[in-house]
Amino acid sequence: MLNGASxxxxxxxxxxxxxKLKNVKGASSHNWLSRQLTDPYVEKAKMMNYRxxxxxxxxxxxDRFEILRPGIVVVDCGAAPGSWTQVAAKRVNADGSDPRxxxxxxxxxxxxxxxxxxxxxxxxxxxxxNPQSQSKIVELLAGKKPDSxxxxxxxxxxxxxxxxxxxMIHLCYTVLRFAVQMSEVGASLLVKLWQCxxxxxxxxxxxxxxxxxxxxxxxxxxxDSAEMFLLGRDFKGLMK
Length: 240
Ligand SMILES: C[S@@+](CC[C@H](N)C(=O)[O-])C[C@H]1O[C@@H](n2cnc3c(N)ncnc32)[C@H](O)[C@@H]1O
Fold this sequence. Notes:
This protein is of the alpha/beta class. Helices cover 40% and strands 17% of the residues.
């Protein structure tokens, strides 16, 4: 059922679709806008009150691999505007909306501001790669260990492909290091990356700490995008 605001939005999207886009400057803005207007996930996200279409990537991955369940602790890296946090908070029952299920915890972090998500703890304007930010996360977890670390982080594109890939891989290894040091035995790790030469090495490195690792490309991830995810399951734990 659509509420008034969603209905208004859908109507305005439909109206926009019928407008010729000849006033938009530059081919890439034109392409982006027309793609947004014809993307079923964009409209579906609005109808379901998700903050962006990325929600469906996590939904698809979780429906397939069951990494989220009521009662678990999730750290969501690169969480703004917050659609993964919305999905995770619901699925782990972080808002306690299901009184019969255990209540989970979602801790979300981003360099940008994150508007509050019911049930989740959000840490906006915080760079995950900064060790002090990670100490803050540990402090907020108050002795609890993550059962799942998910990262949809992406660096700002510089336009130089090799540099962008390098920055992305750097983010992935920062997440892997954090997850390995902090996670509960049996935990999962989901990291976004772009298909590049270093992807295989990252996959190998994840497999050293997780019993299985799998490349995943959800159907809601645009087929013309180099984006992919690596899913590590069943964290082995660190040998003391
Ligand atoms: C694709 S968006 C995430 C979308 C989010 N999963 C959602 O569903 O709403 C990527 C995010 O990564 C964040 N990011 C990139 N580098 C970061 C860093 N070093 N620390 C924290 N967040 C970072 C960006 O600010 C951006 O908001």
